[in-house]
Amino acid sequence: MKSNSQTSISRRCMLGGTVAVIATMVSPTIANAAKQFKVGNAADFPAGTVILVKIPKRAWWGKKSVSLLSTKTGFFAYEATCTHEQYPLRKAGKKLICDEHDAVFSTKNGAALAGPTRRGLTKYTVTVTDGVVYLTI
Protein backbone atom coordinates (compact mmCIF):
# COMPACT_ATOMS: atom_id res chain seq x y z
CA MET A 1 0.00 0.00 0.00
CA LYS A 2 1.29 3.47 -0.96
CA SER A 3 1.75 6.10 1.69
CA ASN A 4 -0.51 9.15 1.75
CA SER A 5 2.32 11.43 0.54
CA GLN A 6 2.77 9.39 -2.65
CA THR A 7 -0.87 9.44 -3.71
CA SER A 8 -1.89 13.01 -2.91
CA ILE A 9 -0.81 16.30 -4.41
CA SER A 10 1.12 18.55 -2.08
CA ARG A 11 -0.13 22.03 -1.28
CA ARG A 12 3.06 23.47 -2.81
CA CYS A 13 2.43 21.63 -6.10
CA MET A 14 -1.22 22.72 -6.15
CA LEU A 15 -0.30 26.34 -5.42
CA GLY A 16 2.40 26.33 -8.13
CA GLY A 17 -0.05 24.96 -10.69
CA THR A 18 -2.69 27.53 -9.74
CA VAL A 19 -0.21 30.39 -10.06
CA ALA A 20 0.90 29.13 -13.48
CA VAL A 21 -2.70 28.99 -14.74
CA ILE A 22 -3.49 32.49 -13.45
CA ALA A 23 -0.27 33.92 -14.96
CA THR A 24 -1.15 32.40 -18.33
CA MET A 25 -4.62 33.94 -18.24
CA VAL A 26 -3.50 37.40 -17.04
CA SER A 27 -0.25 37.98 -18.99
CA PRO A 28 -1.89 38.50 -22.44
CA THR A 29 -4.14 41.14 -20.87
CA ILE A 30 -1.18 42.92 -19.28
CA ALA A 31 0.92 42.66 -22.46
CA ASN A 32 -1.88 44.17 -24.57
CA ALA A 33 -2.60 47.09 -22.24
CA ALA A 34 -1.96 50.39 -24.04
CA LYS A 35 0.69 52.67 -22.58
CA GLN A 36 1.29 56.31 -23.42
CA PHE A 37 4.78 57.83 -23.62
CA LYS A 38 5.74 61.50 -23.86
CA VAL A 39 8.02 62.02 -26.86
CA GLY A 40 8.64 65.76 -26.72
CA ASN A 41 7.38 69.14 -27.94
CA ALA A 42 5.75 69.15 -31.37
CA ALA A 43 7.73 72.30 -32.30
CA ASP A 44 10.95 70.27 -32.00
CA PHE A 45 9.89 67.96 -34.86
CA PRO A 46 9.46 69.96 -38.10
CA ALA A 47 7.88 68.25 -41.11
CA GLY A 48 10.24 65.65 -42.55
CA THR A 49 11.71 64.70 -39.18
CA VAL A 50 12.08 61.01 -38.39
CA ILE A 51 13.17 59.91 -34.94
CA LEU A 52 13.62 56.56 -33.30
CA VAL A 53 11.72 56.29 -30.03
CA LYS A 54 13.09 53.59 -27.72
CA ILE A 55 10.51 52.31 -25.27
CA PRO A 56 12.02 51.50 -21.85
CA LYS A 57 12.23 47.76 -21.22
CA ARG A 58 10.58 48.12 -17.82
CA ALA A 59 7.57 49.79 -19.48
CA TRP A 60 7.03 47.09 -22.10
CA TRP A 61 7.34 43.32 -22.40
CA GLY A 62 10.76 43.22 -24.05
CA LYS A 63 12.60 45.80 -26.11
CA LYS A 64 10.65 47.97 -28.54
CA SER A 65 11.65 50.74 -30.93
CA VAL A 66 9.21 52.91 -32.87
CA SER A 67 9.82 55.21 -35.85
CA LEU A 68 8.05 58.55 -35.36
CA LEU A 69 7.55 60.55 -38.57
CA SER A 70 6.55 64.20 -38.64
CA THR A 71 4.79 65.37 -41.80
CA LYS A 72 2.92 68.49 -42.94
CA THR A 73 -0.32 66.69 -42.08
CA GLY A 74 0.68 65.35 -38.67
CA PHE A 75 2.61 62.60 -36.92
CA PHE A 76 2.73 58.89 -37.73
CA ALA A 77 4.42 56.05 -35.85
CA TYR A 78 5.31 52.52 -36.95
CA GLU A 79 7.35 49.71 -35.49
CA ALA A 80 11.00 50.35 -36.30
CA THR A 81 11.96 46.82 -37.28
CA CYS A 82 11.34 44.86 -40.46
CA THR A 83 8.53 42.33 -40.28
CA HIS A 84 10.66 39.82 -42.21
CA GLU A 85 13.52 39.21 -39.76
CA GLN A 86 13.39 42.12 -37.29
CA TYR A 87 16.27 44.17 -38.73
CA PRO A 88 16.20 47.96 -38.15
CA LEU A 89 14.57 50.29 -40.68
CA ARG A 90 15.75 53.65 -42.03
CA LYS A 91 13.81 56.41 -43.78
CA ALA A 92 14.47 57.04 -47.48
CA GLY A 93 12.14 59.66 -48.94
CA LYS A 94 8.57 58.48 -48.37
CA LYS A 95 9.61 54.93 -47.56
CA LEU A 96 11.10 52.94 -44.70
CA ILE A 97 13.84 50.57 -45.90
CA CYS A 98 15.37 47.44 -44.42
CA ASP A 99 18.93 47.29 -45.74
CA GLU A 100 19.40 43.64 -44.78
CA HIS A 101 16.97 42.09 -47.30
CA ASP A 102 15.70 45.15 -49.23
CA ALA A 103 12.20 45.20 -47.74
CA VAL A 104 10.38 48.50 -48.38
CA PHE A 105 7.48 49.96 -46.38
CA SER A 106 5.25 52.99 -46.94
CA THR A 107 5.52 55.88 -44.47
CA LYS A 108 1.91 56.74 -45.35
CA ASN A 109 0.32 53.54 -44.03
CA GLY A 110 3.11 51.09 -43.09
CA ALA A 111 2.23 48.72 -45.95
CA ALA A 112 4.89 46.34 -47.27
CA LEU A 113 5.77 47.55 -50.78
CA ALA A 114 8.68 45.29 -51.78
CA GLY A 115 11.08 42.67 -50.53
CA PRO A 116 10.63 39.30 -48.88
CA THR A 117 7.94 40.39 -46.42
CA ARG A 118 4.24 40.75 -47.17
CA ARG A 119 3.21 41.90 -43.69
CA GLY A 120 3.00 45.62 -43.08
CA LEU A 121 4.32 47.46 -40.05
CA THR A 122 2.34 47.85 -36.86
CA LYS A 123 1.00 51.40 -36.65
CA TYR A 124 0.83 53.23 -33.33
CA THR A 125 -1.32 56.14 -32.22
CA VAL A 126 0.30 59.56 -31.95
CA THR A 127 -1.50 62.47 -30.31
CA VAL A 128 -0.54 66.09 -29.73
CA THR A 129 -1.95 67.69 -26.59
CA ASP A 130 -1.04 71.26 -25.64
CA GLY A 131 1.92 71.14 -28.05
CA VAL A 132 3.32 67.89 -26.60
CA VAL A 133 3.66 64.72 -28.70
CA TYR A 134 2.52 61.44 -27.09
CA LEU A 135 2.96 57.93 -28.46
CA THR A 136 0.55 55.17 -27.44
CA ILE A 137 1.58 51.54 -27.82
Q: Mean of residue pLDDT? A: 79
* Poorly predicted runs of 5 or more residues: 16-31
Largest sheet: 6 strands, antiparallel
Helix content: 10-25%
The number of strands is: 10
Amount of beta strand: 35-45%
Shape: flat
Structural class: alpha+beta
Largest beta sheet: strand ordering: 1-10-9-4-3-2
Number of helices: 2
Rg over CA atoms, rounded to whole Å, is 22 Å
Span between N and C termini?
A: 59 Å
| H/E element order | HHEEEEEEEEEE
Provide an overview of this structure:
The protein has 137 residues and is of the alpha+beta class. Helices cover 18% and strands 38% of the residues. The chain has 2 helices and 10 strands, in the order ααββββββββββ. About 12% of the residues have low confidence.
